Automatic annotation (TrEMBL):
Coiled coil stretches, renumbered: none
Family, similarity comment: Belongs to the protein N5-glutamine methyltransferase family. PrmC subfamily.
InterPro entries noted in UniProt: DNA_methylase_N6_adenine_CS, HemK-like, N5-glutamine_MTase, PrmC_N, RF_methyltr_PrmC, SAM-dependent_MTases_sf, Small_mtfrase_dom
Binding site for substrate: N187, P188, P189, Y190
Protein name, as recorded: Release factor glutamine methyltransferase
Function of the protein: Methylates the class 1 translation termination release factors RF1/PrfA and RF2/PrfB on the glutamine residue of the universally conserved GGQ motif.
CDD domains named among the record's database cross-references: AdoMet_MTases (cd02440)
Top-level EC class: transferase
One GO term (biological process): methylation
Length: 282
């Protein structure tokens, strides 16, 4: 039988041939996950060297081959292992949800810059944004909405596992919602239909299309959100949305047109426009 290291080297070659950008990293992460599946317990990274130098058991080799097959088909690693780290927690991820991305943490930072007692997350997906905010502000009331019942199941599971009390409901943006919130946040579908062909296979083939694009110019969700936000924001309440890097001026203009004050754009760690913030006048 080959050693763990030999399995990993062969997997790296397979993934490179399949066009995977980070073949070495992904092969290592999936080998670790295969070990965890085979042993039924977590395997710290610093213990991997022991498994790499020894012959791999047949069940480990079969499990690892199955995981590499999935990655060679360009399924995202987060879906294969079933989770993704975001902010301070690990979130369950499925094909019914977007994979939480590091750049979205810019929205978390902006939201936490001021106090709030209630938050509404539109298009919650995994619940990563809402749950992260509620975990940082114990006692805060929060609601997450989504049009996908399957995504809401994932969000509820994440909230229960992380230990955050949140409400979730099926809703098309503000439909069926009542009351006002100190904070409304959203990472809506913002990819224009004309941009869909440029997406990587990991995104285009494996993530839910309705969470990626509006099938139009990429601004439909922002039109609905900015139009409905004033009625659901408390005086002085904030609207914070994630955007595509070229959409800052357009989304800020939509906020201004809806009567929100001081619409402004924030950049992510890579220097790209990422967040637009506005406020309901007091």
């Amino acid at each position: 039988m080959p050693t763990g290291a030999e399995l990993c080297l062969a997997a790296q070659d397979r993934l490179r041939t399949a066009g995977v950008a980070d073949a070495d990293r992904d092969a290592g992460r999936l080998f670790q996950h295969a070990l965890e599946l085979a042993t039924g317990q977590p395997v710290p990274r610093h213990h991997l060297s022991d498994h790499l130098t020894h012959e791999a058991a047949p069940d480990l080799a079969r499990t690892y081959a199955r995981l590499i097959d999935a990655r060679a088909a360009r399924q995202p690693v987060a879906q294969i292992v079933g989770g993704r780290a975001f902010w301070k927690h690990d979130f369950r991820v499925t094909r019914d949800t977007l994979d939480p991305r590091p750049e979205t943490e810019t929205l978390i930072e902006a939201a936490l810059a001021e106090p709030f007692a209630s938050v509404l997350d539109l298009g919650t997906g995994t619940g990563a944004i809402l749950i992260s905010l509620l975990a940082e502000r114990p006692g805060t009331r929060g609601i997450g909405t989504d049009i996908s019942p399957a995504a809401l199941i994932v969000a509820r599971e994440n909230a229960d596992r992380i230990g955050v009390c949140a409400d979730f409901m099926e809703s098309d943006w503000f439909s069926g919602l009542s009351g006002e919130f100190d904070l409304v946040v959203s990472n809506p579908p913002y990819i224009a239909l004309t941009e869909m062909d440029d997406l990587s296979p990991e995104v285009a083939l494996w993530e839910p299309r309705q969470a990626l694009t509006d099938g139009a110019d990429g601004l439909s969700a922002y039109r609905a959100i900015t139009a409905g936000a004033p009625a659901h924001l408390a005086p002085g309440g904030r609207l914070i949305v994630e955007i595509g890097p070229s959409q800052g001026a357009a989304v800020a203009a939509l906020m201004a047109g809806a009567g929100l004050a001081d619409p402004h754009v924030l950049r992510d760690l890579d220097g790209r426009d990422r967040i637009v913030c506005g406020r309901k006048p007091r």
